[in-house]
Design brief:
Length: 86
């Protein structure tokens, strides 16, 4: 009977040790996964901010080009009307 209790106790200790190691391994994997997730999210946010900035620059350049085209068109229209008057 004492031998049986000793074997049961050893089996429980071995199982607890195995579970403890498995838990540590799982926690390590969770921590690594969390770090990877945070890095990925920060990268995505950074790219989004950068992209938005680039779009704003492009829109500004398009607006400037439109203004130049409108000014040139106005000059052409003025030149045409001057030629018709003379």
């Amino acid at each position: 009977m004492i031998e049986r209790e000793r074997q049961d106790k050893e089996a429980v200790e071995a199982r607890n040790q195995l579970l403890s190691e498995a838990n540590k391994k799982a926690q390590r994997r969770i921590s690594i996964g969390f770090v990877v997730l945070v890095v990925a999210v920060l990268g995505a946010v950074s790219l989004g901010i950068f992209s938005r900035h680039q779009v704003d620059i492009a829109n500004s350049q398009v607006q400037s080009a439109k203004e130049k085209v409108n000014s040139a068109n106005a000059q052409v229209d003025e030149a045409k009307s001057d030629n018709f008057i003379t």
